[in-house]
Amino acid sequence: MAGGAATGGSVQSETYREARTWLLLPAWVTLGILTLAPLTIMLVYSFLTKEFRGGVIWEFSLAAYDQFFFDRGLFGDEPPRIEWTYIGIFWRSIWQAGAATVLSLLIGFPTAYFIAMRPQKERALWVFLVTIPYWVNLLIRTVSMKFLLRDEGPLNEGLMAIGLISEPLGIVNTNLAVQLGLFYSYLPFMVLPIYAAVERYNLALSEAAADLYAPRWTILRRIVLPSVRPGIVAGCILVFVPSLGSFLAPDLLGGAKTFMIGSLIEEQFKGNAGNWPFGAAASMILLTMVLILLILSARPSRKGVR
Amino acid sequence: MKKLLTTAAALSLIAGAASAEGKLVIYHWFEYMPQDLLEKFSEEHDVEVVMDTYDSNEALLASLKAGAIGTYDVAVPGDYMVQIMGNEGLLDTIADGELANKGNIAPEWADPSFDPGRASSIPYQWGSTSFAVNRDVYEGDINSTDILFNPPEELSGKINMLDSQGEVLAMAALHMDIPQCSSDRDQLRALNDMLQSAKAHWASFNSDTAKEVLVSGDAAAGQIYDGFAAKARAEGANVEYAFPTQGYIVWMDNVVLLKDAPNRENALLFMDFLLEPENIAAVTNYARYNAGVTGVAGFLDPSLAEQPESNPPAEAGAGVFIEVCDQATQEVYDQIWTNLKK
Amino acid sequence: MAKPYDLRHYPGFLGVTLLCLLILYAPLGVVAVYSFNGSQSITIWEGFSLRWYVDVFTGPESAKFKQAAWNSFIIAIAAATIATSIATLAATAVLRAGKFRMRTLSIGLISLPLMVPEIVTAVATLIFFNAIAFERGLMTILLAHIAFCIPFAYMPISARMQGIEASYEQAAMDLYATRRQAFTRILLPLMMPGIVSGFILAFIISLDDFIITNFVKGAGVETLPTAIFGAVKQGIKPNIMAISTMLLAVSIVMVTLSWLIGRKDQKNLIQQRKKK
Question: Can you tell me the distance from the alpha carbon of C248 to that of C14, in angstroms, rounded to the nearest whole number?
Answer without folding.
Answer: 24
